[in-house]
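Re: weekly structure request thread

Next one in the queue (124 aa):
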Amino acid sequence: MLIVRKSRKDGGYIVVSGHSHLDYLKKHTKKSTVACLVDESKLSSKVSSFLYYFRKPKLPSYVPYIKPERLIGSSGAIIQRFLRQDPRFKTLSRSQKIKVLRIGLQYKKTTIASMRAKVDELLK
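Done, posted below.
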């Protein structure tokens, strides 16, 4: 889904969310129009981000901060499941933790086994 907001300067629209969807449509189709939602106010986006802050799943304190927009439902579930199953993650340095979590954020290309393999590699 594409989300846009009205540009004040040129009167057009700016893509807020859905860049990958737009890129796909440009590369693989000849469509000149795309269905989208128009974000009409900044207040509505602030309210939704405030509500998402309380609704989002909390990660343990020893996990480095991850931007909420990067934490898609599937990747969040993968990361939380991995943290429950592998306690050795706590012994890694911050940079090593980030390398392991980056694998979890690429939720389509990863499994918990590959995250465990990365921890094994970093602990050797």
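The mean pLDDT is 74. The longest strand covers residues 2-6.
Next request, please.
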